[in-house]
Amino acid sequence: MKIAYLFFAYRNPRLMKREIEILSSDKAAFFIHIDGKVDISRFTEIKGPNIHFSEKRIPVYWAEFSGVRAVIELMKQALAGPERCDYLFLLSGSEYPIRTRNYIEEFLEANSGTEFIRLIKVPGPGKPLSRLTTIRYESDRPVRRFLSRAFAKVGMSQRDFHNHLGTLEPYSGRTWWALTREACEYILRFDEDNPEVAAFFRDTFAPEEAYFHTILGNSKFKERACGNLVYEDWSARGAHPAIITAKHLDYFEKKEKVFDLYEGPSELLFARKFSDDSLALFSRIDHMAKQKGDLLSSRPPLYQTS
Fold this sequence. Notes:
Blueprint: E1 3-9, H1 13-23, E2 28-34, E3 51-53, H2 65-80, E4 87-91, E5 95-97, H3 101-110, E6 120-121, H4 130-133, H5 142-153, H6 162-165, E7 171-172, E8 178-180, H7 181-193, H8 195-202, H9 211-217, E9 230-231, H10 246-254, E10 270-272, H11 282-292
Parallel strand pairs: 1-2, 1-4, 2-3, 9-10
Antiparallel strand pairs: 4-8, 5-10, 6-7
Helix pairs in contact: 2-7
């Protein structure tokens, strides 16, 4: 089992360095895209024969299609790399593994062929139809962006997504996923062959939470989808997940395996959101992961049964 970890990041170089060191093995390669607006010299300490920085750096803006394009670049780089990866695992550089490297590798081996992405048919929980029907231009078109936001306030910046997506049913979910090589190859072919779909999602809010999901939700890979592998705390219902604290670690330590049945049913192997200011927590997390063990005791179902 070969894993390509894709880092779609813009900060936390110390956290990323430690995370990569924890995950490194002869089964892992790391492909890193640093936001084109960021000084990449901050990340120079992250280096190694299995670490590859994207030469093409895209200026990424929050909840815009530039993020999708950065992820597409990472996928192309990983699939063209000398390491023939079986899984591509998208990360943000603000998470940290809550199980050991060996456990993560064996988990993916045991569940080979599963697509770890949650697909929510739109409209669905936390995914209103307005995300598709309201036009939202990117930052590189500031005049249109300003006018569309003004028109949206009075209900005038609207469109019928059926006119753009045709027979495709819209899906959404969280940004972070772990997908098979086959699924990623399919996404890249679809992206190349259907520019009109990308053009539609370019003018939507948070397309990284819908573009890949809609492609897979209308394919054979939908039947292989089984939820995310990254824990996030959205209990405050804000625009961003809560920062992980010692209280979250108390919860993780009490559970032999961490599940989120609302996002599941798969086991959660990472947690986010951390930052470079969270480094004091990682020794405790590493100890917890070691105590829980490296190997799966058996090949259990992906969901919690009790």
